[in-house]
From TrEMBL:
One of its GO terms (biological process) is cardiolipin acyl-chain remodeling. It comes from Octodon degus (Degu). CDD domains: PaaI_thioesterase. Coiled coil: none annotated. SUPFAM superfamilies: Thioesterase/thiol ester dehydrase-isomerase. Pfam families: 4HBT. This is Acyl-coenzyme A thioesterase THEM5. Residues 151-224 form the Thioesterase domain. InterPro entries: HotDog_dom_sf, Thioestr_dom. GO terms for molecular function: long-chain fatty acyl-CoA hydrolase activity. GO terms for cellular component: mitochondrial matrix.
Amino acid sequence: MMRRGFQVAVRLGLPRTLHILPRLNSTSTSGSSTGSRVSRFCPEKTDLKDYALPNASWGPDMLNLYQEFLEKTTSEGWIKLPSFKSNRDHIQGLKLPSGLVATSDKGDYCIFTRCIQVAGQGYEYVIFFHPAKKRSVCLFQPGPYLEGAPGFAHGGSLAAMMDETFSKTAYLAGEGLFTLSLNIRFKNLLPVGSLAVLDVHVEKIEDQKLYMSCTARSRDQQTVFAKSSGIFLQLQLEEESPQ
């Protein structure tokens, strides 16, 4: 099993000294659990801006479904995930395994799906996660800067949103960090300014990999925009040394 894990790492160009995890139990070898990862990812107090909050650009469908899921956070175990400018802000106190730290003299980092910060023009989205079900639902409203065919969102923007929802789910459900594969089958065009509901499930976790599926539908569930599957590699984040 470990041998196969290292073979995957080598194919990705990752160093052979990575801490590839054993098959996931309720806690990892470092004592990390879904609960502790959620707590770190969703700090109760922070000065960081949460971009996953309603703004004037959100349409009625997105606002209504957001309120529905927000109510479920108090009664059905769902958690609204904050969305900060960079993933670095979500994993403060942790670092990537040795050999995977990128060196740069630039400090203005921004996650791709938050690179258009004018409200309503790019990626408007919010993700809700259910720890027990290992499931996420993302509400995604594409803006005009994401246009492909006239009046419709570029397929790449929906692919990026699926990958982003996969990645957050993979990390919280089982320390999944890197996309090994992403397969998408587009079904219907997604109009700019409309709502796509992305439903993500962790199908299984084995051999240091998380296998996931996603279906993107309209608010009324009558239109399927795309279906996708993804595989993520588990990598254990290290605690940063005290300064």
